[in-house]
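Case study 2.
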Amino acid sequence: MSLDLLGVGYLGVGAVVALVLAIALRRQSASDTLLLVVLWPLWAPLMIAQRRGQGDDERELLSALSRAQASPLAQVLPDAETARVLAARLREATERLEELDALLDRPDFDPATVEARVRELAARGAKAAAATAQLRVRTLGQLRSLRVRYRSELDEVHELIAQLVTQAELVRLQPSIAQSSGELVRELVSRVEGLGDLFAYQSTIEDEGLEYKTADAR
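Prediction:
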């Protein structure tokens, strides 16, 4: 099959996707329609995500990659499937941070309160209970440290996304710098992929707490 036929087929699929989403979503701008026809592998998931009310972070990343795809930066961007995986990971990190914020804002998760409980139990001679409470203090410290890391990483990702949007516009004016902009894209992808390390660390903290509870129950 020739490249011309492949190109026609690709645009044909884009036209069908644009028509289907126009019917489903009912409101669609001319720019959205054009982007759907030309960049449907990236732009269609973005519009569907907006329809489903998914996270702003996920939409922000997909939108940045979609717009950059329409510039000379396209040659250094991840493919559509990778972009969706990265966006889902970013959404998950944001949701985990929100969960940690809600958890650590609870009065009974205040380290000072738990430390006071440790001293109270120790003073009463309840050594086993004091040891359990002390473990809780340590776990709270780990969770608070994890929250700081989530915030730091997400802040960096947001700045990289903003820079990608800016860089895409600059590359439109100076296409010759597209290749040298690849480092920005690689850094963004690396940062989002690195969120998986935080997920693993969080699982370790949770598993340690579960193991201790199981042993204590015995």
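The mean pLDDT is 76.
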